[in-house]
Design goal:
This protein has about 120 residues and is an all-beta fold. The chain has strands at about 5, 10, 20-25, 30-40, 45-50, 55-60, 65-70, 75-80, 90-100, 105, 110-115.
């Protein structure tokens, strides 16, 4: 019944910006972490950023200073603002909603981000 719908991906030139959104449909409770992961072709999926229910943020070193994660709790939505994009940011981006009771991870379907000139 719970689904995560991602949007905002696309093609952008180096130095450009994109804002990814991930909205959870259906009832969801006891969220303790929301985050974004990405996977480039031939590479492992890696954490980009996450945010706890208390508002504490965590970023991969490659994202620090360029990306910002935020939430809109009333809509169970998580955003990733990406600025100063680089070609190495090219990947499929997946959102995550982790719930505590019972413990479970919900994943979005993925959205393609391509940074190229």
């Amino acid at each position: 019944q719970v689904q995560l719908v991602e949007s905002g991906g696309g093609l952008v030139e180096p130095g450009g910006s994109l804002r990814l959104s991930c909205a959870a449909s259906g009832s969801i409770f006891s969220i303790y972490v929301m985050g974004w992961y990405r996977q480039a072709p031939g590479k492992q999926r890696e954490l980009v950023a996450d945010i706890t229910s208390g508002g504490r943020t965590n970023y991969a070193d490659s994202a620090k200073g360029r990306f910002t994660i935020s939430t809109e709790n009333a809509k169970n939505t998580v955003y990733l603002q990406m600025n100063s994009l680089k070609p190495e940011d090219t990947a499929v981006y997946y959102c995550l909603v982790a719930v505590a009771r019972p413990r479970y991870d919900y994943w979005g379907q993925g959205t393609q981000v391509t940074v190229s000139s």
